[in-house]
Amino acid sequence: ASGATTAGTAGGGMGGAGAGGAGGAAMVDAGTFNASNAMSSVGQSAAGIMIAAQNSGIAALIQQSVNVQSNLAVGR
């Protein structure tokens, strides 16, 4: 048999996906530490058990507590 042979045409394959972008910059700030301890006019209107607690400086890192002992007369 003598027939004409015709070859098909093939298209090129798709390109691969692109690479991801670079990561963002990390910003870190340690803050500032203030060791001042100014306290003025803190005890004029206190009633009962007064504790002058600071919330700044080195006193902010110290646990403060109040202990109370009371003697009760029960059943008299």
UniProtKB/TrEMBL annotation:
Residues 9-22 have a biased composition (Gly residues). Residues 1-22 are annotated as: Disordered. This is Uncharacterized protein.
